Amino acid sequence: MTTGTTSPNTSSPATVGTSRPAWLRDALVVAGYLGLAVLVTSGQWGRPWQLFHQAGDQILFEWMLAHAAHAVVAGENPLYSTGLNAPDGVNLMANTSVLGLGVPLTPVTLLFGSQVAFCVAVVCCLAGTAVAWYVLLRRRLVRARAAAAVGGLICGFAPGMIAQAGAHLHIAAQFLVPAILALVFRPTSGDARHDVWRPGVGLGLLLVWQVFIGEEVLVFLALAAGVFALAYALADRVAARRLAPALLGRLAVAAGVAAVPLAYPLWFQFHGPQHYSGMAFATQGFQLDVASFTASARQTVLGDDWLPGLLSPNPTEENSFFGPGLLVLAVVIVIWQWRRPVVRALAVAGVVFALLSLGGELRVDGEATGIPGPYRLVGELPLLDLAVPARFALVCVPVLGVLVALSVDRVRAARAPNVAPGLPVRLLWAGAVTAALLPLMPTPLRVVPVAPVPAFIADGDWRPLVSPGRTVVAVPPVTGAARSPVMLWSARTGLGFPAPGGYFIGPSGPDDPAARWGAPDRPTSVLLRQVADTGAVPVLTDVDRSQAVEDLRHWRAAVVVLGQLEHGDPVRRTVDDLLGPGRPVDGGWLWDVRDRVG
């Protein structure tokens, strides 16, 4: 099925001779996207002591990027690692391992470290998504370069994309979405090789790549494409009947191509070591407020901290904050261009996914209304029962971007035959679009301080003490859904050592596949985490000391290391009582437990 109502713009020889070359104008658009993405990430470049505001998630993805580079260099299994949660390891295919980003970024990670690689990945996600939509719009849907540029800007830098980018690379990386859609909804020529086989093979390869970036985006994409295709078919039945055979053929070829390379990774995800079932949190609780669609997100020029906190589950899920101007503009565009099947299909898809993002019960201004939401109709379906409802609103981002691009293109191309002479229609519409988009312009992602990696770890002074098969235990040794110091240490040393614990999703125990955050708790990890949280030094017994040695044996510990913590002194005194006096090292404290563990 194609939505192609126009073809790319072509310039006359006179125009070419008196204006910038087409490639230069395209390059300026791309440079603008890149510059904006660098500005958004500016708070962290060259500042290793800072992380974006959702620091635990950044630590997770820094580790994933470091793992991908380590797997490439060492030739290890990229789907599994014992670098965390030692000795049991982590099923990385069942976590957000973003191998589709980490492997290409391996040279950056090896040369500049995991923090730079993460920032580069964020820039690529935002600018790459904007560029990809710009290219699709320019080639398939609009003639005017300005129209495509505005559409790409919305698709790449909408508030929801900015909110996700600082924490969730697997969600923000949507640069393959336009390419996949371009192959799915490809114009037909009557040649099966051109219409089915070649695009089908390309589509299959892109699907494989997207799986290794993020399966969640692929699920949303499949649902959105299905709703769009159905709505388009109802709007233009003749075109649907003509285009359906080639479309279904491409999908069949793509499924066959993708099945081969994905068979083992998907088996490993659901049946390999450390696989789990369900989710570690209640996804249904992550829903959006009806009022969020007209509010301003935190990371915009008009944003604040109070209102978004009321209307969204957390700062990373502000996916619907489009502001009143853009929504009014979208309604005007839909009414104005309702006769176009593509506009009708976009409107249906946008409304459907906006409603789904509201969850199982509608909330308005932070208050539950008791009115059931449409999500209840699909929330128990396979795959959708694992999806975060709030993220359905991300489908509205490209819907709005394409609608605005179509409107700008129509205004620029029109001769305005029904408008009073002298009325500057183009100028008025440009002003309306600008007024709608300016309040949504992103501000640099907020940053928070992070405790530095102890020099004892960063400089490799731990190496003589940790033999193969042994681990470095950071205090507190195991964390759940929170910042994991040892994960940051591991990432920024290139996975130099294995460690227990970490921030990931795994099974609750050897005989319990139910999902949970982090490793199953052991008594010593619970004890030390309580001290780290409260600063209260407990009265210990010989049972506690014996248990600490038993837990260290389970973790195969060689050394225990304490870095900077808010309640560092109480934690140090507690570990001294458990293991005997530690010794200061550069950046922290060290307990050599090799003799005690055996």
The low-pLDDT segments are 1-18
Number of helices: 24
Q: Which percent band covers the strand fraction?
A: 5-15%
Instruction: Specify the structural class.
Output: alpha+beta
- Largest sheet, strands/sense/barrel: 4 strands, mixed
In spatial order, strands of the major sheet run 7-10-12-11
Identify the overall geometry: elongated
Radius of gyration computed on alpha carbons: 26 Å
Provide mean pLDDT, rounded: 92
Give the N-terminus to C-terminus distance in angstroms: 67 Å
Give the number of DSSP strands: 12
Helix content: 40-55%
Question: Can you give a write-up of this model?
Answer:
It is a single chain. The chain has 598 residues and is α+β, with helices and mostly antiparallel strands. It is 53% helix and 8% strand. The protein has 24 helices and twelve strands. The protein has helices at residues 13-18, 22-40, 55-74, 99-102, 106-112, 114-141, 145-157, 159-165, 169-172, 177-184, 192-213, 215-235, 237-271, 306-311, 323-336, 341-356, 396-413, 425-437, 455-458, 485-492, 523-534, 542-555, 568-579, 594-597; strands at residues 50-52, 80-81, 90-91, 361-364, 367-372, 447-449, 471-474, 505-509, 512-517, 557-562, 583-585, 588-592. The chain has a four-stranded mixed beta sheet with strand order 7-10-12-11. A two-stranded antiparallel ribbon has the order 1-6. Strands 2-3 form a two-stranded antiparallel sheet. The termini are far apart. Residues 1-18 have low confidence and may be disordered.
